[in-house]
Design a protein that fits this description.
The complex is a heterodimer of chains A (about 290) and B (about 240).
Chain A lengths: L1 H29 L8 H19 L7 H26 L3 H27 L12 E4 L2 E4 H23 L1 H11 L1 H6 L4 H24 L9 H15 L4 H21 L5 H15 L8
Antiparallel strand pairs in A: 1-2
Helix pairs in contact in A: 1-5, 1-8, 1-9, 1-10, 2-3, 2-4, 2-8, 2-9, 3-4, 3-8, 5-6, 5-8, 6-8, 9-10, 9-11, 10-11
Chain B lengths: L1 E12 L2 E12 L3 E5 L6 H8 L7 E6 L2 E2 L5 H6 L2 E4 L11 H7 L4 H4 L2 H11 L1 H5 L10 H13 L5 E5 L7 H16 L3 E6 L2 H7 L2 E6 L2 E7 H5 L2 H8 L2
Parallel strand pairs in B: 3-8, 3-9, 6-7, 7-8
Antiparallel strand pairs in B: 1-2, 1-4, 4-5, 9-10
Helix pairs in contact in B: 3-7
Classes of the chains: A mainly alpha (about 290), B alpha/beta (about 240).
Chain lengths: ~290, ~240
């Protein structure tokens, strides 16, 4: 029983970070139509920013959100208005653009990954953070797990409110559902796409900052994060915040269960098993329509 | 006075010419129709008017100003509203959110609240179900919502593409009734339609387009009596 509770809570904590990763990827693909293979590298970039700033200056890792988020947003936004906008211009239609965009994002993945690896090495990095436990139902839970979950939940709620209540958020949803109709109403699609690619980066940065508080990471962790995010987006349904959260929790819990009972090496292959079963049962994803 | 003037528009898709020297005038405060079969060039003309596609020659003026190369938000801010074929609602957004998107241009967004109330009055069915998702509505209700969204910007000219398409005769009547109501309020309506009979009963003036060329024009009721129209479009 205790083991189950532990898996549940740790799984949810990790799952809440996965949800942020997936929401970022989903925003980039759902609106900007870029399946961003380099997504995980920006998570790692934010993690290293947090690591370096926190270990050198002692600033609380959460404060690093204020550095990492604007920075990764700006990098992503600029990548879109310089690189992806050009790729879109030379692609005869959105189908071709999607293919080209994946290739471009592979390029970004290698460049960013190599740069991080050359400056930080490939050893795992971590720092102690809120190591004391809370006791819940007779089980000791790391305070960091609770902290990460709460912060991730706040970010998820803030993002949902942004999407549902603000003019920009509404135009983003409109552009995701029918870009042509949105542009007829005056929505500037290219600008919205660039903003969404930036927001995807911002959410990646949030995930990266939170990851440092939970588990070791290295310059080669990124592609694993990207893979998990892709799996969750497929699982939860594209463009669905609820789907990303639910999918994140499922994968977080499944991941902990597998590393407890089997071996963490099998985590990703187990994720793929889950997704294959799900796609047979519900081809549009949990929340997809 | 003509509020919208289309002068000598030519449009080509690659080697295929879709519009040949199309000219027409839309008089202020009138309902003017453009009739034609599928593929005659009706939607192409609307796209040329709203600048969604580039015409190879010709010009479009609204109140004497050229508009054919303006971005969509500027066209809306000038008072032109375009309802595309099929309504093109946002299926995963609520009725209220869909309406709000009709006031998206920055000059209109801040003033959207009173217009929302106006739409709930004009279309009571929308007011009763503000939080319903567009995808769960029936065809007729969707068309009402699409009209509401187009009216949110307080337009002086409405461009309606295939308002009655796919609607039951009863719903189509209801939709045309609203068109008449708009005319009474002084709003100019440019209707693009396949439903010749119903349209000509409402329209003050109509143009008939075939293979990208205007082949006939005249007052609505007189076209209803026209032998060619009767034979080719009304089947009598």
């Amino acid at each position: 029983m205790d083991t189950f509770l532990l898996i549940l809570i740790n799984g949810c904590a990790m799952g809440s970070v996965y949800a942020l990763m997936a929401m970022g990827l989903s925003t980039q693909y759902g609106v900007a139509r870029i399946l961003n293979i380099s997504h995980g590298e920006f998570i790692v970039l934010a993690a290293f920013i947090t690591f370096v700033v926190h270990t050198r200056t002692g600033i609380h890792p959460l404060i690093c959100l204020l550095i990492a988020c604007p920075l990764v947003f700006a990098i992503s936004f600029l990548l879109h208005i310089t690189l992806f906008k050009r790729v879109k211009k030379i692609s005869p239609n959105m189908g071709v653009f999607e293919g080209n965009a994946i290739l471009v994002s592979f390029g970004i993945y290698f460049i960013v990954q190599n740069m991080i690896q050359s400056s930080m090495g490939s050893a795992p990095h971590s720092f102690p953070f809120m190591m004391y436990p809370y006791t819940v139902g007779g089980v000791n839970i790391a305070a960091s797990s609770v902290f990460v979950m709460v912060i991730a939940a706040i970010i998820c709620v803030a993002y949902s409110v942004f999407l549902s209540q603000t003019r920009l958020g509404k135009s983003i949803r409109a552009a995701a559902q029918d870009p042509q109709a949105a542009s007829l109403l005056g929505v500037k699609i290219n600008r919205i796409m660039a903003i969404c690619f930036g927001i995807g980066g911002l959410l990646a940065a949030c995930a990266g900052v939170l990851i440092t508080m939970r588990e070791p990471f290295s310059s080669v962790s990124g592609i694993g994060y990207t893979t998990i995010a892709i799996i969750i987006v497929v699982l939860g349904g594209l463009g669905s915040v609820k789907g990303a959260i639910l999918g994140g929790f499922i994968m977080g819990i499944a991941g902990y269960a597998i590393s407890t009972f089997v071996d963490s090496v099998f985590m990703i292959s187990a994720f793929y098993m889950i997704i294959m079963v799900l796609l047979v049962v519900r081809p549009k994803g949990l929340m997809g329509r | 006075m003509a509020i919208l003037e289309v002068k000598g528009i030519n449009v080509s898709y690659g080697n295929l010419q879709a519009l040949w020297d199309v000219s027409l005038n839309v008089e202020e405060g009138k309902v003017v129709a453009l009739l034609g079969a599928n593929g005659a060039g009706k939607t192409t003309l609307l796209n040329a008017i709203t600048g969604m596609i580039k015409s190879t020659s010709g010009e479009v003026t609204f109140k004497g100003e050229r508009i054919d190369s303006l971005p969509a938000d500027k066209i809306i801010e000038k008072g032109i509203s375009y309802l595309p074929e099929g309504g093109r609602l946002f299926p995963e957004m609520t009725i209220t959110e869909n309406l709000e998107m009709g006031a998206y241009p920055s000059k209109l967004w801040g003033k959207r609240k009173p217009d929302l109330e106006r739409m709930y009055e004009l279309f009571p069915i929308l007011g009763q179900r503000k939080n319903q998702l567009a995808r769960t509505m029936s065809g007729g209700e969707r068309q009402m919502l699409a009209m509401g969204r187009a009216l949110m910007s307080n337009p002086v000219l409405c461009l309606f593409d295939e308002l009655s398409y796919g609607l039951s005769p009863v719903m189509a009547q209801a939709v045309f009734k609203i068109v008449k109501q708009l005319r009474e309020e002084g709003i100019t309506v440019f209707l693009v339609e396949q439903n010749v009979h119903m349209t000509l009963e409402v329209a003050d003036y109509a143009y008939v387009i075939e293979n990208g060329r205007i082949v006939k024009e005249g007052e609505g009721h007189s076209l209803l009596e026209d032998d060619y129209i009767k034979q080719a479009y009304l089947g009598i």
